[in-house]
Amino acid sequence: MPRAAVWPLAAPTSTYNKTIRQAQLSLPDVDLSTIESIGRERDESRAGSRHSFCKRSFRMFSRDVCRRLYGVLAVLAVLVPLGVTSAQDTITLDFYYPTAVDGPIAQILEEYAQQFEAENPGIDVNPIYTGSYVDTRQAIQTEIQGGGTGPDVAVMLATDIFSLAEEGYVVPVQQFIDQMEDPEAFVSDFYESLMVNSVDEEGTIWSIPFQRSTPILYYNKDMFREAGLDPEQPPRNRDELVEYAQKLTLPNGERWGLMVAIAGDFPIWLFQSFVMANGQNLVEESPAKVYLNTPEAVDALKFLIDLGSTYRVQPEGGTSWGDTPTAFTSGQAAMIYHTVGSLTSILQNADFEVGVGYLPSGPAGEDGTGYGTPTGGGNLYIFANSTPEEQEAAWKWVQFLASPEIQADWGAKTGYIAARRSAWETDILQELVAQYPQYAVARDQLEIAGKEFTSYRAIDVQNIINNTVSSILAGERTDIETALAEAQAQIDSLLAEYQ
Question: Please, are residues 247 and 382 in contact by the beta-carbon 8 Å criterion?
Answer without folding.
Answer: no
